[in-house]
């Protein structure tokens, strides 16, 4: 036997169904239209990690930071000789660990790290007295532009 209170509960429960369907459709739409991590809108493509690393080393070399060997003249030749000296991370989990849930969900920031031996000029500018390798930790846009940088000697 249906009582007035059980009919009200049924009506209240059925009012939530359209809301949940709308949320489900919105989530499916967002997933279906999402660009891959690291998608550069300006160039309409995903920039490969290797290209990002070469660009970062080109910049560091142009600022006189990287100690080059005689056969190294550009970011490309430096990266080809030191492939493990650069890492690029486009994962949301990295953003979550560094900045929290909202950045993990909505930020397009890429994290990168480049390691190199500094020139004598760079050591003086950064007040480094030893020959330890230097590591630059960088937050980048999906197109590879530096948004934030910090460096550490290790």
Describe the structure.
- With 154 residues, the chain is an alpha+beta fold.
- It is 46% helix and 19% strand.
- The chain has 6 helices and 6 strands, in the order αββααβααβαββ.
- It has helices at residues 4-33, 49-62, 75-81, 92-99, 101-106, 120-125, and strands spanning 39-40, 45-46, 86-89, 110-116, 134-140, 146-153.
- The strands form 2 sheets. A 4-stranded antiparallel beta sheet has the order 3-4-5-6, with helices on one face.
- A hairpin with a 5-residue loop joins strand 5 (134-140) and strand 6.
- Helix 2 (49-62) packs across helix 3.
- The termini are far apart.
- The mean pLDDT is 81.
Give a nutshell description of this structure.
This protein is of the alpha+beta class. 46% of the residues lie in helices and 19% in strands. The strands form two sheets. It has a four-stranded antiparallel beta sheet, with helices on one face. Strands 1-2 form a two-stranded antiparallel sheet.
């Amino acid at each position: 036997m249906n009582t007035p209170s059980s009919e009200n509960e049924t009506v209240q429960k059925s009012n939530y169904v359209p809301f949940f369907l709308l949320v489900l459709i919105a989530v499916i739409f967002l997933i279906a239209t999402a660009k891959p991590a690291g998608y550069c809108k300006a160039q309409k493509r995903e920039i490969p990690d290797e290209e990002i690393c070469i660009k970062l080393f080109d910049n560091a070399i142009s600022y006189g930071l990287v100690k080059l060997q005689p056969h190294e003249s550009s970011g490309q030749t430096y990266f080809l000789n030191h492939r493990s000296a650069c890492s690029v991370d486009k994962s949301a989990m990295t953003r979550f660990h560094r900045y929290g849930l909202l950045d993990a969900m909505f930020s397009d920031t890429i994290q990168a790290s480049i390691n190199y031996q500094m020139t004598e000029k760079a050591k003086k500018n950064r007040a480094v007295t030893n020959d330890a390798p230097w590591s630059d930790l960088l937050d980048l846009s999906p197109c590879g532009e530096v948004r934030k940088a910090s460096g550490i000697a290790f």
